[in-house]
Amino acid sequence: MAKLKVGILISGRGSNMAALIRAAASPGYPAEIACVISNVADAPGLPIAAGAGIATAVISHKDHPDRESFDRAVSAIFEEHGVELVALAGFLRILSRWFPGRWAGRLVNIHPSLLPAFKGLHAAQQALAAGVRVSGCTVHLVTPDLDAGPIIAQAAVPVLPDDTEETLSARILRQEHRLYPLVVRWFAEGRVAATGRGVTVKGIPSGGTLLFSPEP
Ligand code: GAR
């Protein structure tokens, strides 16, 4: 069966992108990474993608008069590569309203908190400041609002008394690297369905929310 073609947008390190590339390299994984686009020319993730033989492109906002024309340029490249699902992976540029409309139901993001808590930057630091005992990560469909949209899946981790932003971020990131490939697999298997109340995943009894066991 043809594999789902995934386009990834990054701005930096690209560890979630790398997790998706690793997953896609394993035989039987039903999606392939067709193209990686960065808005930052020296994003460390770009050589990782290129090294895996994946088409890459840089699109700079400096070459575009407004957000929508930038977003249309991104879309055009994804279309050239036959992309069917777009995954934001540490993409730190705010999208125009046009982009989520163009990719409605086929645009996902990963965020390092249990949304709707702690949107925006420094989510782990926000969690520490709030004193929560559990945090985690969320994969959701993207709507025009920042870090918003129907939740597809979440993974939870404990917040430990001596955590710093670095240690909590690292614990969450390990779960991100499990969760994102899983959700992309669900899309490729045609199991993700938008309902009136959000998203359900066929075959997952809880409807799509996963709570991983706390690490020792
Ligand atoms: C990840 O933790 C991702 O969840 C977060 O940026 C990091 C990117 O790391 N995204 C957001 O905060 C989106 N609001 P990566 O480049 O190594 O994947």
Q: What does the model show?
A:
The protein is an alpha/beta fold and about 220 residues long. Helix 1 (about 15-25) runs parallel beside helix 6 and helix 5 (about 125-130) packs across helix 6. The chain folds into 2 domains: about 1-105, Rossmann fold (3-Layer(aba) Sandwich), CATH 3.40.50; about 110-215, Formyl transferase, N-terminal domain (Rossmann fold, 3-Layer(aba) Sandwich). The chain is globular, with a radius of gyration of 17 Å. The protein has 6 helices and 9 strands; from the N terminus they run βαβαβαβαβαββαββ. The N and C termini lie far apart (about 40 Å). Glycinamide ribonucleotide binds near residues 12, 15, 89, 111 and 147.
Topology of this protein?
Layout: E1 4-10, H1 15-25, E2 31-38, H2 45-51, E3 55-58, H3 67-80, E4 85-88, H4 98-102, E5 107-111, H5 123-130, E6 134-141, E7 151-158, H6 165-188, E8 192-195, E9 198-201
Parallel strand pairs: 1-2, 1-4, 2-3, 4-5
Antiparallel strand pairs: 5-6, 6-7, 8-9
Helix pairs in contact: 1-6, 5-6
Bound molecules: glycinamide ribonucleotide.
CATH topology of the largest domain: Rossmann fold
Radius of gyration: 17 Å
DSSP helix fraction: 25-40%
Bound compounds: glycinamide ribonucleotide
Mean pLDDT: 93
Tally of individual domains: 2
The side-by-side strand order for the widest beta sheet comes to 3-2-1-4-5-6-7
* CATH-defined superfamily of the largest domain: Formyl transferase, N-terminal domain
Percent of residues in beta strands: 15-25%
CATH architecture of the largest domain: 3-Layer(aba) Sandwich
| CATH top level class name of the largest domain | Alpha Beta
Q: What is the count of DSSP helices, taking H or I runs of 4+ residues?
A: 6
Query: What can be said about the biggest beta sheet?
Result: 7 strands, mixed
Uncertain residue segments: none
Number of beta strands: 9
Question: What structural class do helix, strand and pairing data support?
Answer: alpha/beta
Distance between the termini: 40 Å
Shape: globular
Please provide the ordered H/E string of secondary-structure elements: EHEHEHEHEHEEHEE
